[in-house]
Amino acid sequence: MAVSSRPRRSVLYMPGSNARALEKGRTLLADGLIFDMEDAVAPDSKKLARDQIIAALDAGGFGPREIQVRVNGLNTPWGYDDIVATARSKADAILLPKVESPETIQQVAAIMQAEGAHENMRIWCMMETPLAMLNAREIAGAHPLLGGFVMGTSDLAKDLNCAHTRDRLPMITSLGLCMLAARAYDLAILDGVHLDLSDDEGFDASCVQGRELGFDGKTLIHPKTIAAANKAFAPSETEVAWARKIIAAHKDASAKGQGVVLVDGKLIENLHVVSAQRLVALADQIAAMATA
Ligand SMILES: CC(C)(COP(=O)(O)OP(=O)(O)OC[C@H]1O[C@@H](n2cnc3c(N)ncnc32)[C@H](O)[C@@H]1OP(=O)(O)O)[C@@H](O)C(=O)NCCC(=O)NCCSC(=O)C[C@H](O)C(=O)O
Ligand SMILES: [Mg+2]
């Protein structure tokens, strides 16, 4: 399966130091889990978090969920050992925090190779500093093992000294730069977290905006937000029905030698069919996940 084409509607962070959270990951209906060794873990608990995460990965039982491990940076006392331990594990991806240059990714790819990481393991990057925004294109093209970006909007807001507003206008240039780079290099890209767990309406609005901007899904901090993210980032029944309709209509038109067709008064060209096929494929993958 191409790295960018699997459901990633909801991706939940869980601190590696929280054994109960890791256990719950086996049953929560999130498309992906991020086992965190970095900012959600206090310095005194770094080793505990690493050991618990590796034990959970060894034990397995996470089904179709994509498992990323967010390691500490190579510039910290824990980063190298985190990367080595994760490279030897069954994780789907190593998620690197605060990436700012292609060199970091190349260093980590070399460690993965030296440690015999399995062939499907990918590198993902937290995009969360101003320099990362400016270097997004170089980072996106850094290495064939790169699988995707995760927006780190909390660190970004801190470094930009900007506000967390409802419309996220202060963040929009950054989101756009990372989106452009990700899509140019066929990477997946996940939106940042919504920090206010008491603000359901704001959470829903951020999901709608994230999907409209093109994000594959949203990173989450609490299980109670999984269902809303799954709904927001999934194709609706109406969208799937429309997609199937225009695929069929365009196929009929093509058989008659026509390159375009009008469906309910709307012009349908091949490019619309490509988008429709992608949407139907995602809906099918979501349905398959539900029965896995
Ligand atoms: C925010 C929390 C600390 C709240 O935890 P808690 O008080 O335990 O919440 P609840 O009592 O409401 O929990 C109910 C049950 O759900 C489980 N739970 C809670 N959170 C998680 C989770 N993330 N994963 C799995 N399970 C979870 C509890 O164990 C309860 O279960 P049960 O025992 O059956 O009742 C907590 O939600 C939390 O720690 N969240 C994650 C925070 C985190 O990871 N932050 C770092 C990532 S955000 C970030 O860094 C983004 C980026 O870098 C940036 O810069 O933007
Ligand atoms: Mg961060």
TrEMBL record:
The keyword Magnesium applies. Keywords: Magnesium, Metal-binding. Residues 9-223 form the HpcH/HpaI aldolase/citrate lyase domain. The keyword Ion transport does not apply. Substrate binds at residues 70, 128. Mg(2+) binds at residues 128, 155. Gene3D superfamilies: Phosphoenolpyruvate-binding domains (3.20.20.60). It holds the Pfam family HpcH_HpaI. Belongs to the HpcH/HpaI aldolase family. This is Malyl-CoA thiolesterase. The lineage of its organism: Bacteria, Pseudomonadati, Pseudomonadota, Alphaproteobacteria, Rhodospirillales.
